[in-house]
Amino acid sequence: MKYCKGSTKVFNSQKVIWILFNNPKCGQLTKINNAHLYEHEIHPTWTLIKPISKDIQIGSNSSHIKTRTQFPIQLVVAHIIH
């Protein structure tokens, strides 16, 4: 990953993250499916990351439900030993 930028714009009432990966092939399908969201300040090589939400039950009482929202991003570091 070369660069990561949180967007100040909101899409469908959600904030998004734009990531510039080292490999331009990363996120090709996402770039195609979200081409309408790219504007002049967002370069077409950046990949859009949208948050995902899931309702979770708190405790044993099913009336207590919270929504957890997070970005599906995981930091990965590779070490090569020769």
Unreliable segments (pLDDT under 50, ≥5 consecutive)? none
Structural class: mainly beta
Strand content: 35-45%
Per DSSP, the total helix count is 1
Distance between the termini: 24 Å
Q: How are helices and strands ordered from N to C?
A: EEHEEE
How would you describe the overall organization of this protein?
By secondary structure, the chain is mostly beta strands. It has one domain (3-70). Helices cover 7% and strands 38% of the residues. The protein has one helix and five strands; from the N terminus they run ββαβββ. It has one helix spanning 28-33; strands at residues 3-11, 14-20, 47-49, 52-57, 65-70. The strands form two sheets. The chain has a three-stranded antiparallel sheet with strand order 1-2-3. It has a two-stranded antiparallel ribbon with strand order 4-5. A hairpin with a 2-residue loop joins strand 1 and strand 2. The chain is flat, with a radius of gyration of 17 Å. It starts with a strand and ends in a 12-residue tail after the last strand. The relative contact order is 0.19. The mean pLDDT is 79.
